[in-house]
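queue> pop job 88
queue> type: inverse folding (structure -> sequence)
queue> payload:
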């Protein structure tokens, strides 16, 4: 975690991608005006695990790992992600995490591509990445990716 954060900063002169929208597969807006993290609008998602259900607000600045949620998610827990508006599952059945083989969830970024991340607590923030429509693949290890909302 420490090393990861350090290497992120060292790459802070790398490419920055501005993302202004995030949607579910049905087109609902997932950007949340009410909850800000680090001064930026967060990405609001519905989560479920075991018998619990709630909301999570994801920091739009990749690599800072400041997610907000009322739920206590146990380490190693797999979490299901849903659109908070229409309830559609955000799990991408085609993808599995290259680190831990868990399912991945994905968000649509109109005109840019998709954001995918692992559904396992303590893993998903490390695997967050953008796949752009022009096949450019940006891993958080290589670039600081910041969503300007
Ligand atoms: Zn939706
Ligand atoms: Zn994983």
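queue> result:
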């Amino acid at each position: 975690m420490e090393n990861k954060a350090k290497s992120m900063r060292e790459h802070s002169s790398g490419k920055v991608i501005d993302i202004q929208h995030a949607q579910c597969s049905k087109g609902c807006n997932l950007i949340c005006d009410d909850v800000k993290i680090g001064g930026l609008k967060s990405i609001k998602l519905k989560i479920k695990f075991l018998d619990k259900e709630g909301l999570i607000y994801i920091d739009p600045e990749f690599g800072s790992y400041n997610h907000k949620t009322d739920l206590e998610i146990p380490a190693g827990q797999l979490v299901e992600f849903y659109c908070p508006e229409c309830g559609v599952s955000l799990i991408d059945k085609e993808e599995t995490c290259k680190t831990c083989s868990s399912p991945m969830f994905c968000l649509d970024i109109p005109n840019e591509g998709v954001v995918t991340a692992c559904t396992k607590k303590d893993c998903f923030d490390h695997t967050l990445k953008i796949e752009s429509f022009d096949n450019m693949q940006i891993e958080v290890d290589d670039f600081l990716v910041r969503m300007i909302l």
